[in-house]
UniProtKB/TrEMBL annotation:
Designated name of the protein: Acyl-CoA dehydrogenase family protein
Flavoprotein among keywords: yes
SUPFAM superfamilies named in the record: Acyl-CoA dehydrogenase C-terminal domain-like (SSF47203), Acyl-CoA dehydrogenase NM domain-like (SSF56645)
Domain Acyl-CoA dehydrogenase/oxidase C-terminal: 287-445
Gene source species: Ideonella oryzae
Family that this chain belongs to: Belongs to the acyl-CoA dehydrogenase family.
UniProt keyword list: FAD, Flavoprotein
Amino acid sequence: MDWSTHSVSNQVDELRDVDLLAIDPALQQHLRRLGAAWALPGLHAYGTALGRSTTFEQAAQANAQGPVLQRFDARGRRIDDVRFHPDWHALLTLLRGQGWMARPFADRRPGRWAAAAAGMLLHGQVEAGSLCPATMTQAAIPVLRRDPALWAWLGERLLDARHDPSDRPIDAKPSIWLGMGMTEKQGGSDVRANTTTATPIGSPDSAEALLRGHKWFYSAPSSDAHLVVARTAEGGLSCYLVPRWRPDGRRNAVRIQRLKDKLGNRSNASGEVEFEDAWGLRVGEPGRGIPTILEMATHTRLNCVLGSTALMRAGLVQALAYARQRQAFGRPLAQQPLMRSVLADLALESEAALVLALRLAQAFEDAEGHAPDPLARAWQRLMTPAAKLWVCKRAVAQAGEALEVLGGNGYVEESSLARLYREAPVNSVWEGSGNVMALDLLRALGREREAAQRLWDDLAEGCGDEPRLRAALHALAPVWQGPTDAAEGQARQITQRLVLLAQAVLLRRHAPAAVAEGFIATRFGPDTGGIFGALDPAALDVDALLARALPEAPPDGL
Ligand SMILES: Cc1cc2nc3c(=O)[nH]c(=O)nc-3n(C[C@H](O)[C@H](O)[C@H](O)COP(=O)(O)OP(=O)(O)OC[C@H]3O[C@@H](n4cnc5c(N)ncnc54)[C@H](O)[C@@H]3O)c2cc1C
């Protein structure tokens, strides 16, 4: 008997089984420009592995069946462990195995930061939660590298390309994961309000201490160690390495109280912990805990920008692939004039985020060494918080718009777009929420006068004679003289202006005219700042933008 009531037609599957790098000409072009051509074969292999439908399915499973806290073992011994779905471990194995996480520190080749960034950009298009432990581990490396003894102990284990999920003392493990613990209940952004104490063991100037208190957010709580900020008797804040196992072989007294039930980022565990005299080893100077952890935070902020850029790209690709096939009112959505405006706008936003993210990554490379480039310093110190605010916010808006291109199909949990939408806000919240980033930009403008001037000169040169850009630069002149108290309330406006200008300058220098001119026409006109697609497509070369965003067929030789 035939039960069917209808045949299924005009339903479009999400794009799968593609090399995520091969379908991204812009990323390839920018990697070559930044000296990372040597990384392309490895990144193509990674893009192929990530783009498989089986990897997308692993990502879906790791999120659908998220981590579970296991406080005790079967016989009642306290273990404070977190159990993950096997696909989570498969994703971490894939991520770590490619070496992109450690690349900037394990490799001296020019372009290493861009290559590492590309690895994150590709991975984040498929599964974002796993970027969290990778980001924190990567970001701890520059901090720990400063201390020869710590580096001798941990260095090889941090650079190792294996994922070792076992719960054992660090000395027994070939590779380790690290996290960070700053946020407490009474205040996250204001780390100075931290109350967790550190009591030196033995003499008052001992680097070993016992920590007592709590952290309200403690992501990847079963990592092998965390960098934790705690207060000493002198009242200053210091930074401590707090491992899961004490050097004497006992379990460290870091109690995971519960896991957060999060909006998104569900594959990854974020805990609440208490330290019941947990053993810690000081990292960095005593009383300099905030600058020490902020070095780590600066690196994590770069990865927030990369993670959000990846989400934007993921949404754009699925939206465009869908719109090219889905028919409505007699022709494909991608041929409907208004949908073309939306898609072109998403494409512009995505490439603008990409050039900005890669420029930031390049700055981290240029800032290394004995005579770091002053412009790199400006990008690290001023543009990192600015870009974090802007790109992470735009990713939230873009995720909603990309989802809508798929109509109702985008809103259901079987769609990767629904997960992407839930994921999008986290990068904006953690590691310095939006306002905190805008205020950090103002602080840096006030303190880093030389770097600010260098950035100004570079932006001025990049604006050329383009009148809209020169006007935008001029609008920043008052705050560049030195921010006043009155600027605080305008900090988001200032950040927005600065980032848009920086993106326009980068696109003028490094992207095809269709992208650069399209971006300037739509971001520096009278209607700027509204919803995606609220533009005049006559000002754009829509065909060129969409072909660059996702070639209909990947060109030969990619
Ligand atoms: C999924 C997830 C994972 C996390 N993982 C970790 C982790 O591993 N380790 C860790 O230490 N933390 C972690 N966090 C915590 C995160 O870093 C904090 O939530 C964040 O820094 C904000 O701190 P808060 O929640 O205390 O908010 P608050 O500091 O109370 O801020 C609330 C709001 O006020 C704004 N604000 C603050 N100060 C000002 C001001 N002066 N002017 C104007 N506005 C202001 C902020 O921008 C924010 O929007 C995580 C958070 C999330 C959501």
